[in-house]
Amino acid sequence: MLYARISSERIGVLIGADGVTKERLQEATGTRIAVDSSTGEVTIDESSATDPVLALKARDIVHAMARGFSEDRAFRLLDEDAYLEVLDIKDFAHSRNRVGQIRARLIGTRGKTRRLIEELTGVDVSVFGHTVSLIGGPFEMAIAREAAVMLLRGSEHKTVYRFLERKRADIKVYQMGF
C-alpha cells in the first residue's frame, strides 16, 4: 500500500468527471485507488499491479495533481523518462510575505517566466501554494531546476533568460541523440 495526501480543492482533478480520471489512472498502472474526500487521504493498492514501478508512478501522478498539474500533464509521468520534482519555496524565503513575492517572480508577468522555462526546456512547471513542481526528462529537468533555483535565490530575470537561451542548444543536441 502506498499513501498520498491531496488538498480538498484538488480532489476533483484526481477523480475527474464521473470518476474518469481515477479510472484511467487505475487502468494505466494496474492499481486500485481509494480517495477519502473528507481527509484527502489517497490509498494506492499496488497488489494488483503487474509492475511495482507503475504503483510508484501512480503515487507520483497523484502528487503531481496535488501540486497543481492538470490531468494531461500529470499523466506525462507514465513515460519511462519523465520525473516529478517538487521544490519548497519556504526553503528560500525568510517570511510569509517573501513566499508570495518569490511565487510572483517564478510565474512572471502574465505567466511569462513560467512559460519561457517550459518552452525552452520542455519541462512542465506548476507553481502551487508554497511549492514549484517540475515534470520532465532528467537532462531537461536539471536545466529547468537550475533556472528555478536561480529565481528562488533572487537572480534577475534577464540572467535566467540568458541561461535558458544558452542551454537551449544543449537540449537540442541531447534530444537528437549526440
Descriptive tags:
178 residues, alpha+beta, Ribosomal Protein S8, Chain: A, domain 1, three-stranded antiparallel beta sheet
Could you characterize the architecture of this molecule?
This protein is of the alpha+beta class and 178 residues long. 51% of the residues lie in helices and 17% in strands. The protein has 8 helices and 6 strands. The chain has a 3-stranded antiparallel sheet with strand order 1-3-2, with helices on one face. The protein has a 3-stranded antiparallel sheet with strand order 4-6-5, with helices on both faces. Helix 2 (20-29) runs antiparallel to helix 3 (52-66). The relative contact order is 0.11.
Q: Calculate Rg over CA atoms.
A: 17 Å
Major sheet: arrangement of strands = 1-3-2
Largest sheet: 3 strands, antiparallel
Distance between the termini: 41 Å
Q: Residue share in helices?
A: 40-55%
Secondary structure category: alpha+beta
> Order of SSEs, N→C?
EHHEEHHEHHEEHH
- Choose one word for the global shape: globular
CATH class of the largest domain: Alpha Beta
CATH superfamily of the largest domain: K Homology domain, type 1
Oligomer: single chain
The residue ranges in which pLDDT falls below 50 over 5 or more consecutive positions are: none
Give the domain tally.
2
CATH architecture of the largest domain: 2-Layer Sandwich
> Proportion of β residues?
15-25%
Tally the beta strands. Answer: 6
Count the DSSP helices: 8
Q: Could you please say which CATH topology of the largest domain applies here?
A: Ribosomal Protein S8, Chain: A, domain 1
**What value does the average pLDDT take?**
91
